[in-house]
Amino acid sequence: MPRRPENLYPEYHAHVYFGPATVAQARALVEAAGRELPVAVGRVHEKRVGPHPHWSCQLAFDATAFETVVPWLDAHRDGLDVFVHGQTGDAYADHTDHAMWLGAESVLDLSAFRPRAG
Q1: DSSP assignment, residue 4?
Q2: d(Cα 9, Cα 48) in Å, to the nearest integer?
Q3: Which of 13, 43, 102, 109 has its CA 20 to 30 A from that of 33?
Q4: Which of 85, 71, 67 is nearest to 11 (CA)?
């Protein structure tokens, strides 16, 4: 079972995942999030970018907004999967150890990231 989001870090990214059949739904979701929530809305990528195995749009927010943003996303995602992770400055850990999900978990392409030496 995917790890559910917990407010553990100072800053977060939430990546809304979608595909060709759900792009309009995802656009409506992130536009509503931008109007209703204290988030910075990134570009809607109609291609795979970075480690993300699906088309996506990033929402950035901080820990003070977490308890508003995450429940709102969960209530409004209507079947879309959302990858939520802490932003700690360690990209590998952020996308592995700090990975949390609303909906189904996906396998990320971590090839661009390197674990930090202990």
Answers
A1: P
A2: 26
A3: 109
A4: 85
Q: Per the domain annotation, does 51 fall within a domain?
A: yes
Number of domains forming the structure of the chain: 1
Averaged pLDDT score across all residues of the chain: 96
pLDDT digits (tens, 9 = 90+) for 56-99: 999 999 999 999 999 999 999 999 999 999 999 999 999 999 99
* CA 105 to the chain's CA centroid: 11
CA distance 5 to 85: 8
Q: Is residue 24 part of a domain?
A: yes
The CATH number assigned to the domain holding 48 equals 3.30.70.1240
Let me know if residue 12 belongs to a domain.
no
Residue 102 binned pLDDT confidence (cut-offs 50, 70, 90): very high
What Å distances lie between residue 46 and 18, 22, 52, 70, 74, CA to CA? 9, 11, 12, 23, 22
Range of the domain at 52: 18-90
Measured CA to CA, the distance from residue 56 to residue 24 in angstroms comes to 12
Under the banding of pLDDT at 50, 70 and 90, the label for residue 114 is: confident
